Amino acid sequence: MKIAFFDTKPYDRPSFDRFASETGMKIKYFEARLSEDTVDLCAGFDAVCVFVNDVINAPVIDRLAALGVRALALRCAGFNNVDMQHAYGKIHVFRVPAYSPYAVAEHALALLLTSVRRIHKAYIRSRDFNFSLNGLTGFDLHGKTVGVIGTGRIGRVFSDICRGFGMKVLAYDKFPAEGFADGDAVRYVTLDELLEHSDIISLHCPLTDETHHLLDATALSKCKKGVVLINTSRGALVDAEALLEAIKARHVGAACLDVYEEEADLFFEDNSGHILEDDTLARLISMPNVIVTSHQAFLTEEALSNIAETTVKNLTVFFSGEGNPNELCYSCGFAQDCGGKRCF
Ligand code: NAI
């Protein structure tokens, strides 16, 4: 089985080499992303393995199918970068639905603590022997209300951590999780109620047509003054320009962003020698109350190992002819895990 692996980074290879070597799978690592410009590199391969910023649109899918590539293995959970409707019937798509919800939830919390206790400022100051505390006053998380949008695997772990800090959780989900609400400690509310009453808001829902710019200017205006916003989910859940305006207006108190709408051309790469063309991102990064990490929430040893193990298994199970519950398909009219039915 020959796999073309796109958008390779040095931290991807050790775990994939380890799990692939147990199966006889041959992996060719490409640094390039999969796109219309690079899809011809897939000639002669049985499957391709991609990450969050590879572009698998209709022309790429058609070309992959024409080249005889039968499977597309996403080494991530989100699949908003794949035209799933177009893929149906042409190429089998697999994902890693869960690899470490703890990695992402703990990163969200790390960003939150860094922001509210001004650790990013203190770290820089003390390196310069500036031991002044002026401007570093934070606030207790204990007793605050956190709004969690999306109570799937990551949102629930994040909520549990917040409860450990003594915070109250207001949850919003299109499909509330059974048994998750817990009296006054965790309450499902409408999105508007969550926006209105939360001191901190953390996004943990997928990016879909429905959730695109879920937090736009109108939604942000409904938030409490001083709200801290955390986005470790997908950049386009937040209208970045509206967020910038809300920060400039002192309405949003702080933003912790692991993802950004226009991240595809920037994140995961060293752009330190370049002039940043994206004025919105440059302005956001320049703010003292904005912390940006470059889609790093997943990056733990445990998550990398789980991602490689599941991805290799997704492909070996598929090529052995068995059904795989991690297959995504569009047979029911929208993209979802197909439960191993091998719908086409
Ligand atoms: P999940 O599928 O377990 O949970 C997503 C939740 O969002 C579900 O409960 C679902 O009902 C809910 N949801 C769906 N549509 C909604 C809507 N319109 N409004 C409100 N809620 C809605 O997914 P999981 O594993 O918790 O991941 C959440 C997101 O985190 C992923 O979609 C992905 O975008 C992001 N992620 C980010 C990573 C990073 O490194 N920054 C790594 C892994 C995931």
In short:
This protein is α/β, with parallel strands linked by helices.
Textual characterization of the structure:
With 344 residues, this protein is of the alpha/beta class. It contains eleven helices and 14 strands. The strands form two sheets. Strands 2-1-3-4-5-13-14 form a seven-stranded mixed beta sheet. Strands 8-7-6-9-10-11-12 form a seven-stranded parallel beta sheet, sandwiched between helices. The longest helix is centred in the last third of the chain and has 19 residues, at 301-319. The radius of gyration is 21 Å and the shape is globular. The chain starts with a strand and ends in a 7-residue tail after the last strand. It binds 1,4-dihydronicotinamide adenine dinucleotide.
Mean pLDDT across the residues is 96
CATH homologous superfamily assignment of the largest domain: NAD(P)-binding Rossmann-like Domain
Morphology: globular
Radius of gyration based on Cα positions:
21 Å
Count of individual helical segments = 11
**Widest sheet: strand ordering:** 2-1-3-4-5-13-14
For the termini, the CA-CA separation is 21 Å
- Beta percentage is 15-25%
Give the ordered list of helices and strands: EHEEHEHEHHEHEEHEHEHEHEHEE
Assembly level: single chain
CATH architecture of the largest domain: 3-Layer(aba) Sandwich
Topology:
Blueprint: E1 2-5, H1 13-21, E2 26-29, E3 47-50, H2 58-66, E4 71-74, H3 84-87, E5 92-94, H4 101-116, H5 119-127, E6 145-149, H6 153-164, E7 168-172, E8 186-188, H7 191-197, E9 200-203, H8 217-222, E10 227-231, H9 240-248, E11 252-257, H10 279-286, E12 290-292, H11 301-319, E13 327-329, E14 336-337
Parallel strand pairs: 1-2, 1-3, 3-4, 4-5, 6-7, 6-9, 7-8, 9-10, 10-11, 11-12
Antiparallel strand pairs: 5-13, 13-14
Helix pairs in contact: 1-11, 4-6
The structure holds 1,4-dihydronicotinamide adenine dinucleotide.
Residues 77-78, 98, 101, 104, 149-155, 172-175, 204-207, 210-211, 232-234, 258-259, 295, 297-298 line the site of 1,4-dihydronicotinamide adenine dinucleotide.
